[in-house]
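USER:
Class, as today's exercise, take the chain set out below, and explain how the chain folds.
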Amino acid sequence: MVISRFINGFPIGHDGKLHIIKIPSIIVVGEKAIEKVSDVASKLGAERALLVTGSTTWRIAGRIVRDLLEGEGIRVFTHYVNKASMSYVKPAISFYYANGGFDIVVGVGGGKNLDVGKVIAKETGSLFISVPTTPSHDGIASPFASLIERKGKHSMVATTPIAVIADTEIIAKAPKRFFKAGIGDVIANINAVEDWKLARDVVGEYYGEYAANLSLLSALHLMKNLRDLISDEIKATRTLIEALISSGIAMGIAGSSRPGSGSEHLISHALDGLAAKPALHGEQCALGTIMMLYYRGSDKLLEVYDFLMNVGMPLKAYELGLSPEEIIQALVKAPSIRPNRYTILHHKPLTLEKAKILAKEAGVI
């Protein structure tokens, strides 16, 4: 497909003196939005599609997407994913070269399906359509993916979705815990932008004010609409999806995950590798945000804490099944997850004893 080679032929972010921005071209949000997937795919000229889904999301929406695509005469190959790992990317790449390829990759489901789908699309030069079934993270519209390997979870540049199709009826049926995780992932932007400013001031890192402001706006959009988030399921779903999409677009504009990923995300990634049973990504980011805002003495701490309390976010480690020792170790380990991602934890590294004091004073343990 000529358009996929054209789009994937451009890098993202900074290329010498150029700043290249890649964001979704088509965003469809609302009830019955899923019915537009075949229309979008056919207008993109797709003839062969790889459907990336899981066993649960297949029943929720994967089968519907397959039937819609086949109804447009598009040949569909289905690839099931159990975790966000290269072990699920490589077979799809091998299939691509052994079976005549595919034009588009359609990721249907939550984080792991979309992340694996984005990486497959990048590696095969295909277009990617994002069809989220949960509102648990801001990767639904971003060009970045997080994969779990032997050394733990790490983020990588994948491909920007050419289209995001978010069916609010389907997403509204997701477990409430996933809603809270999505809120946590967006609220983390408040701390992430502070870390980005710090990196600009201390090590001279590029800072994009527009992308930073859009990222903050995504978080403020949630805080402004607290009443809808806790009392109106339909409005809550749409409000959160809008915030997640705009957060992902901010990253596309920046050319990095900086607008939505700072020290709080490094803490979450550290917990993924340290905890006996990690919590959801956004839940861990919420804990990290509270601790980091406290650590940097932010005047936004109380407002953020009150908001998270009001939406029912677990803000104690034990509520998420995390031990005090796991939290303390994660605070110390976090800077080593991404040594070049300068944050408050790189600026003021913590010892085990200082990490314990911080976590206690922030009320997390």
